[in-house]
Design a protein that fits this description.
The protein is of the alpha/beta class. Helix content is about 55%, strand content about 10%. Helix 26 links the parallel strand 2 (about 455-460) and strand 3. It is elongated.
Length: about 700
């Protein structure tokens, strides 16, 4: 026995000094004499591992554990061999046997950590979490164990626990590279999950909440690791989903400034090109898409967004060509088809547009954007029944704010129901712009007039503050809720969005409720006296609005506003009507142009506090000439003559190729002949104004 002990000591000395060949010869001589010598088996197994012979090591370590199953070190050597062979299940089993021998806490902690990692490699995340929690309990100050636990909690889907564990690592060791990287990855993965859930047909409230959560997570990620491109890119996507294009574009620009793979760069550039288009930065959009094309030639997304850009620039034939190529490149993608359909709609091809919308819906039947775009096309074409039905998708697009939370406590009224109980107290709530409210307020009066037939006990209306006084004066039988008043389920039984009423009541082109006037101004005597003094006898008083609401917080509306608004100088031909005195009705930023008007212009707008004041003045005018904005609807609803300048891609409510409007008998449309050019329209206005064709 002593000779074997001496031989083992000599072999171990050679082993430690790196003379592995000498050590191996001695180990094998010992085993030739004493094949059940456990230490020799184990040490030779260790040596085999060191020299890349893992299979032999596993066999030798297995023999050692059979000779002495109470030797924890033998089980660990066998675990090492299993790990070297990529057999995590066997490694975990060997570690479990070693741990069953009650090793000291520091050893047990390390072995539990290894066992947890092996179980994680097997895909058994719950068991891995249990092992790593046991390791953390044995060594509570070991940051690396806590980091491993956090990673494994993430894999197990226990993200809240993982976030807490990562945060604890960083509290103990700020700047810990692994924890920083993994916590950022956790947040970004969560953000990606929320973003994917926010797409498709989820209700906007849910979708908006998910995108908000994604943005919060991505912001945390970029704050913790501002040098990681993925964080800024994910933040940009989240802000895109929240319809915040300016900060989204800024995030994507910051992402581009950081290193990354070419395919990542192309993706970021494509999204940036889309955002720059929405912001009206057409040159920047083109530059981003050019770079994306260089990174990934022929990519369908680049073609799609370039088509959107060309459309926004009014280059419709070019847009149609590019989008046709995009649709051919990605035949299973509904987006190029939808965008191409919208371009065809603006080119006047209603049938072609409808065919493509239906094709897009076959690919993505629950995609709100397709239904929304189709609704506008159907309404424009005069197919009001289908248009109103599709218009109900508007609140799922993410492009419109959801109803005030105080309203959502009320169930939504779906229209007349003969089986429903009578006595419903119905609250109608305005949405979108002032012009939309002015146009569709007629439906609140219609409901009140037919309340008993519709089973309604009371009809209420919530409108924008600037419209509240006018509506209270104008709609008998309708309770106009004062601005800021609390909405309570004790007072109302159901609610309905104002612009859902045409659908709920089945309005068609033939049944539009066009009885005008349906608005009543406050007393007008003061304005009549003012006009009698300011406008000589025999001259006509013509109100003028040349700009809409720029809405800088809503880039989509801002783009449309730039197309519908007219620089006041363009209307200089109206000066040819020498028997007209123009009165400004222009409010907001464009009103500053009045100082350099190309003709005499009376301006009392400083006295117009709300739409009731404006209505009183409009009621005294001979004619109103306006771009497509709220005053057009105000004048029409008051039954006053109104001429409306309508952009080439005119609003759906004015229908296709009509000079009149079934919504307002006194309204006349002047359509822009070419995108962005109002000169011909202004000349025609002047010709007609001189000819005095005021109805």
């Amino acid at each position: 026995m002593a000779s074997i002990t001496d031989a083992l000591n000599e072999a171990l000395r050679h082993h430690r000094e790196g003379a592995l060949g000498h050590a191996e010869v001695i180990y094998r001589r010992i085993l030739a004499v004493a094949p059940a010598e456990g230490d020799a088996l184990n040490l030779l197994a260790v040596l085999c591992l060191q020299t890349g012979r893992a299979e032999e090591a596993l066999d030798l370590a297995g023999q050692a554990t059979r000779v002495n199953p109470a030797a924890a070190a033998f089980h660990i050597t066998r675990a090492d061999a299993a790990a070297a062979l990529g057999r995590p299940a066997l490694e975990a089993d060997c570690l479990e046997q070693a741990l069953a021998l009650n090793p000291p806490a520091p050893q047990a902690a390390g072995w539990q950590r290894r066992r947890g990692r092996a179980l994680a490699a097997m895909g058994d995340a719950p068991a891995a979490v249990r092992a790593l929690k046991a390791a953390a309990a044995l060594a509570p100050d070991d940051i690396d164990i806590l980091d491993d636990l956090a990673v494994t909690l993430t894999r197990a889907g226990l993200t809240d626990e993982a976030e807490t564990a990562f945060a604890e690592v960083l509290r103990r060791q700020p700047g810990h590279a692994g924890a920083t990287r993994n916590l950022v990855s956790l947040w970004l993965n969560q953000a990606g999950d929320y973003l994917s859930l926010s797409e498709g047909g989820a209700p906007q409230g849910s979708s908006g909440h998910r995108a908000t959560t994604a943005a919060t997570l991505a912001r945390r990620a970029v704050e913790l690791d501002p040098g990681r491109r993925e964080g800024w890119a994910r933040l940009g996507l989240a802000l895109m989903a929240l319809n915040q294009p300016e900060p989204a574009a800024d995030a994507l620009r910051r992402a581009l400034a950081l290193p990354g793979m070419a395919d990542e760069t192309a993706e970021i550039l494509i999204n940036l090109g889309f955002l720059e288009t929405r912001l009206g930065h057409f040159d920047a959009a083109a530059a981003a898409l050019d770079q994306a094309e260089a990174q990934d030639p022929g990519r369908a997304e680049v073609l799609n967004h370039r088509g959107v850009l060309l459309h926004a620039q009014g280059r419709l034939p070019e847009a149609a060509d590019v989008l046709t190529r995009a649709a051919a490149t990605a035949p299973d993608d509904h987006r190029p088809l939808t965008n191409l359909a919208t371009v065809l709609k603006d080119l006047g091809d209603d049938d072609g547009a409808e065919a493509l919308y239906l094709k897009a819906l076959a690919l993505a039947p629950g995609e709100p954007a397709v239904h929304w775009q189709r609704s506008l096309a159907r309404l424009l074409a005069g197919d009001l029944a289908m248009g109103w039905q599709e218009y109900e998708w508007r609140h799922q697009t993410g492009q419109m704010p959801p109803p005030d939370p105080s309203l959502t406590v009320l169930p939504e009224w779906r229209g007349p129901d003969p089986t429903a109980m009578a006595g419903t107290r119905l609250l109608v709530h305005a949405e979108q712009g002032h012009g939309d409210t002015l146009q569709f307020a007629r439906y609140a009066a219609l409901l009140a007039g037919a309340a008993s037939r519709l089973g309604l006990a009371r009809v209420g209306l919530i409108v924008q503050p600037a419209l509240a006084r006018l509506m209270a004066l104008s709609l008998p039988g309708v309770t106009v809720v004062p601005p800021g008043a609390t909405v309570s389920a004790a007072d109302w039984d159901a609610r309905v969005p104002l612009m859902s009423l045409p659908h709920r009541l089945g309005t068609t082109l033939e049944t539009i409720p066009a009885q005008c006037p349906y608005l009543t101004p406050p007393p007008v005597e003061g304005w009549r006296a003012r006009l009698a003094q300011a406008v000589p006898a025999g001259m006509r008083a013509v109100g003028l609005v040349w700009g809409g609401d720029p809405r800088p917080d809503d880039p989509v509306s801002a783009l449309i506003d730039r197309r519908r608004s007219v620089p006041l100088a363009v209307l200089a031909p109206l000066a040819a009507a020498d028997d007209v005195r123009f009165i400004s009705l222009q409010k907001g930023t464009p009103a500053a142009q009045a100082a350099t008007a190309p003709f005499p212009l009376l301006d009392w707008t400083g006295e117009l506090r709300d739409f009731a004041d404006t209505a009183a003045l409009v009621a005294c005018l001979d004619l109103v000439i306006t771009v497509d904005t709220a005053v057009a609807h105000l004048a029409g609803a008051l039954g006053r003559p109104v001429w409306v300048l309508s952009r080439t891609d005119g609003c759906w409510r004015w229908l296709r190729d009509r000079a009149d409007s079934p919504w307002y008998p006194t309204l006349r449309l002047y359509r822009q002949e070419s995108w962005g050019d109002w000169s011909a329209t202004a000349r025609q206005l002047a010709i007609d104004l001189v000819a005095k064709p005021i109805p």
